[in-house]
Amino acid sequence: MQYHSVLKALLPYLLLSTSLMSALLQAQSLNSAVPVTYQRYCAQCHNEKIDGAPRPHNVGDWATRVEQKTDAQLLNSVKRGLGSMPAGGSCPNCSDQTLSAVIAWMKPRPGDIKQIADKPDLVKNLQRLNIPTGFQISVYADDIEEPRGMALGDDGIVYVGSRKAGKVYAVLPATEDHVERQVKVIARGLHMPHGVVFSDGDLYVAEVSQIIRFRGIDPLRGKSPAAEVVYGGMPKVNHHGWKTLHLGPDDKLYFPVGMPCNTCDYRSSQPLFGSIVRMTKDGKDVEFIAKGIRHSVGFGFHPQTGVMWFSDNGQDFMGDNLPPDEINRLSQAGLDFGFPYFYGNNIPSPGYDRPPKGVTPPVFELPAHVAPLGVHFYRGSMFPKSYRNKLLIAEHGSWNRTSKVGYRISTLNIKNEKASDYKPLINGWLQGESAWGRPVAFLELPDGSLLISDDKADVIYQLRYSPPRADPSL
Ligand code: HEC
């Protein structure tokens, strides 16, 4: 009995200490990239924008301050206090050096600010995006016409396909000689270049009817080689003709060939349509590894299994709620995904008799018309651990549904062969029935931040994460 009551008396302390422990552990694991001083003294206001405290790295919150104030002036504000910020930012004993380092960390990177300082509408729109606490979104590059596929080159250069403009851009990182990130056109006059891949110093670009290569490209040192055709002979049909291009874990190029229609059947006459193609970087050993796909505009390879997962856009004119858009899994070469005979979970499509056998259903049905384009397995360690190996989906949004859907980034948990827990990560590109932006594709940078292209707002965003408000008990 006595023993029992001692335990009972101790219980609250036991519970308290385990929750303290887990808070400490969590703070520790989240803290790695964040200055400790920031976490301890500044985060409580700045993570939550209390009284207008600028959020770290958030372009909109910082734009005018960084435009109008020098580093010395910013430091002075913190030392003396400003508005509801107490002197020293609540750390009276912090040295100037420490405070300056924290302020430097809090500011967005130089390239982010200047580029949009003259675009107040974009700054306002950015603030309409709903993102989970701890994430920050900023503009990585703008003034790119319809940015679509992206690839990371050497020296931190990001290559971008621009379908509408027929151009390929290079976003050059900020360096000492040019303080801001620079956007350069490196190829023009191309046929709907969407997908880009960079590998071993060469840039590969997917046009509608061919894959081309720029050998030894180096825009930082002014090297712009002529394009050579790696693989030609694909149909020159614009309808669903633009192509995503990625390198597989086997160092081969992968791209889909869309169906040239809303719905049609070319299985026997032109089996290339509706397929996914794989080949070496020299355009050899061409294989058709999947068929029966309407139009995939995004795919990725699972970081652990190497299996390809891809999005597929369902057909139009079957009403607001049919057919589902799809996330598919290509577990082995040669699978048939059923289009145009089946939609969604192998439901026979009206108007197509004599369906093929052995058709593979989608792994996950997305709502009709959300238009999943880019998909990406998150690999980095900047985002919270739960994001590792999650599938991110760029929903470009509906164009002919009675009330619009999509226009957001969503996530799926992937476990073995299953996908579940479909959730939005970022929305707000759609305001009422009018959209100011449409996400297309992803590129994860080595630091774990994520670039997202938007072909309506004509920008590339950067999504970062730093830990949310410190636990007050710390
Ligand atoms: C109690 C809340 C609070 C704390 C703690 C706090 N700040 Fe602030 N901070 C603010 C607010 C509010 C503003 C905006 C003030 C304004 O513009 O009127 C601000 C503004 C700033 C600015 C911009 C100054 C300017 O001249 O525009 C910097 C830089 C800054 N804080 C850094 C820090 C640092 C570094 C710390 C931690 C050492 C810190 N803050 C702690 C609330 C806080």
From TrEMBL:
GO molecular function, one term: iron ion binding
InterPro entries xref list: 6-blade_b-propeller_TolB-like (IPR011042), Cyt_c-like_dom (IPR009056), Cyt_c-like_dom_sf (IPR036909), Cyt_CIE (IPR002323), DUF7133 (IPR055557), Quinoprot_gluc/sorb_DH_b-prop (IPR011041)
Iron among keywords: yes
Keyword terms, alphabetized: Electron transport, Heme, Iron, Metal-binding, Signal, Transport
Signal peptide: 1-22
Top-level lineage group: Bacteria
DUF7133 domain span: 125-460
All residue ranges annotated as the Cytochrome c domain in the record: 37-106
UniProt keyword annotation of Phosphoprotein present: no
Name of this chain's protein: Cytochrome c5
Lineage: Bacteria, Pseudomonadati, Pseudomonadota, Gammaproteobacteria, Cellvibrionales
